[in-house]
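Q: Sequence in, structure out?
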Amino acid sequence: MTALLSEPRTASVPVGTPGGVPGRVPGGSAPRPRLPHAAGFWVTAVAFLVMMAFNTVPTPLYALYQQRDGFPTVVVTLIFAAYSTGVMLALYLAGHLSDRLGRRRVILTAAVIELVAAVLFVLWPDAVGLVIARFVAGLGIGVLTATATAHLADLRRIARPGAGIGFAATIAGVANMGGLALGPLIGGVFAEWVPAPLVTPYLVFAAALVAVGFAYAFVPETVTPPTAPAAYRPQRVRVPAESRGAYWAAGLGGFAAFAITGLFGSVAPTFLAQLLHQTDHLVAGVVSFSVFGAAAVAQIVFARLSTRRQLVLGVVSMATGLVALGAAALVAQAAGGAGALVATVLFVGGGVVAGAGVGLVFRGALATAGSLATGGNRSEITSGIFLLAFAGMTVPPLAVGAALLALPLVLVLLGFVGLVLVLILWAGPRMIRTTR
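A: Exactly. Output:
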């Protein structure tokens, strides 16, 4: 990523503020019916949540694909890495474009891309097709995440002038993590009780994507293009020199947080089955749901705390949860079947505690990035945080999958715990020192 450059560029203008054109879409076209900004805020949040949920539906279904096709666990991590690679590529190439093209146009594009991915899951269900479908889905999420987060902040600022970005950041975090939580639960239910579990979930979500896309089309735009056209360039992040330390600490905090979500979104069912002897698909979905759900709920429960206190609690929770995950691996290895229950409680409980920390740390990272945004670059600077976070979702789980080809399961899990623990204990205190 080319980052931290400071050359000026023509900023976009928020619609509904002086210089904007209320009631008109960018480019001067005729007025179209639109929702009030307050209602548009919630429609945007729901669309964000649905698209995020679609992207974790396959988590408990991977075991079914493995059972049907007989591929090893490393293929699961490759499929997951294809998704994260798609996210990062889209963030780098297009995550910042809504600052120029407008929020609504970019998010509608993301909805169409996710719909294409749903069709690919149905029509091309072998390992190669799964890799391609997940890559396409990742492209849509890369286009979506920073733009939806920025649009929520814009809509809230216009609907409630002077209200600040805290509430919008909380809802963005809940939609993001809440969607990631609902996906595995829905996938687990389909895997256990619905016919054709490798087809039906994608058809249901295809219909949901069409519905939320239609509703979102009526959300008001909050950005008009710059008056002077600018040449396309990939993602850059312009942060004042005195703020770069805070920005990179936030980015690495996001990296560590999303490494945990990557573990529970990809290979956690393998750990449950091989280490803890839990092979039920619904259980796998519930475990992932609990971890992502804790990330969403923590942001709501502790929303009234200052960002600084949320970060302190988040860092402590992540560290505690990671230690519990490591202890679960050691107990399972030492006690065998007799310690399976204790190890399962430690694994699930540690995941939930770490998940709560993930939600608070990532919200703090987004709040830090938002406070550094200047000159119409909110989507751009937020994209940088998401880019680093999704690198955390990609690299450590992929390394876990590769390591499992040569190393024992317990050693691999302990290595993951140690790496993420070091990262969060380095980045966390630096984030805390720079916030209020």
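The longest helix spans residues 127-159.
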